[in-house]
Amino acid sequence: MAKVAFLGLGVMGYPMAGHLKSAGHDVTVYNRTGAKAEAWSAEHGGGHAATPGKAAAGCDFVMSCVGNDDDLRSVCLGDDGAFSGMAEGSVFVDHTTVSAKVTRELYEAAAERGIAFIDAPISGGQAGAENGALSVMCGGDQAVFDKVAPVIDAYAKMCRLIGDSGAGQMTKMCNQIAIAGLVQGLSEALHFAEKSGLDGRAVVEVISQGAAGSWQMSNRYETMIDDEFDHGFAVDWMRKDLGICLDTGDEVGASLPVTALVDQFYKDVQKLGGGRWDTSSLIKRLRAMG
Predict the structure, then answer these.
(1) Using alpha carbons only, how large is the chain's radius of gyration in Å?
(2) pTM score of the predicted model
(3) For residues 175 and 44, is the Cβ–Cβ distance under 8 A?
(4) How far apart are alpha carbons 234 and 99 in whole angstroms?
(5) What is the mean pLDDT of residues 82-103?
(6) Which secondary structure element, helix H or strand E, spans residue 117, and what is its range?
(7) 67: exposed, middle or buried (Cβ count in 10 Å: 0-12, 13-18, 19+)
(8) pLDDT tens per residue across span 236-270
(9) What average pLDDT does the structure give for the chain?
(10) For the chain, which domains are there?
């Protein structure tokens, strides 16, 4: 069992840190809003600290799941950052979806301090985090991955090293690109069924068993039909992720026309007041169009 810090207790991080504690690890948490860290400690029995550096002090592994590139830099760097409290030979594991650029930047900054860095973005949503069944895609050094994989196993159903530093984030971009097109396709199919006077549930019961089936269809079709959109990853965060995908696509020369189009559709959802709705709310845009 290891001494672990977890930085960031949002809808994903809070249960992930709980799984680490349940697995027997010695866990200290940090959250920008201290009351959340105190609540986690009261529920799970682990410790909490006032800064990332204090949480990370003496830890074998430090996990983070924060908001964006700037948030990640802020918990890693500076006098109160996690790197300041980490000992040589310890490992920082970032589960945030961020750019590969900041990942490689922090990989180098960590290496200068004798710290290892693994980028390990996650997929599976809030339910995956709560059930300990996340898919974790990693970038970094093989020996470091081999060391940290048994710890990540506390909340993962799949954890794989894809390549060097940044490869995990690039894989997460593939994930978000695929999801964007899938959700738009599902939204259009359900909208078409509604306009045609079909029973959407009956339609999905049939088509989900064939080539059209997907995780999105199995897990989101009922709430989409019922016009409920508070069940997962928010539109605001999806637009952040798709922005990273589109910027990186330009850098590597990849054409992403559907991703660019769906990103603008999510912008329309934001204009409807749906920034905090989950990503399946693309159907809401179609309904608003009549």
Answers:
(1) 20
(2) 0.94
(3) no
(4) 18
(5) 97
(6) strand 116-119
(7) middle
(8) 999 999 999 999 999 999 999 999 999 999 999 99
(9) 97
(10) 3-164 (3.40.50.720), 170-288 (1.10.1040.10)
Active site (annotated) includes residue 21:
no
CA angle 206, 209, 215 (to 5 degrees): 110
Of the pLDDT bands very low, low, confident and very high (cuts 50, 70, 90), residue 178 is very high
Rounded distance between C-alpha atoms, residue 45 and residue 129, angstroms: 19
> Of 21, 36, 54, 172, which one is the catalytic site residue?
172
Q: Are 286 and 268 a contacting pair, CB within 8 Å?
A: no
* 2 residue type, one letter: A
Q: Which residue(s) pair with 171 in the sheet?
A: none
Half-sphere exposure of 19 (CA within 13 A, CB side): 21
Angle, helices 235-252/167-195, rounded to nearest 10 degrees: 120
Tokens 């019961």 -> residue:
205
pLDDT digits (tens, 9 = 90+) for 192-221: 999 999 999 999 999 999 999 999 999 999
Burial of 206 (0-12, 13-18, 19+ CB in 10 A): exposed
Neighbour tally for 101: CB within 10 Å: 15
DSSP string, 197-229: T--HHHHHHHHTTTTT--HHHHHHHHHHHTT--
Model pLDDT, residue 226: 97
Residue-level pLDDT at 273: 98
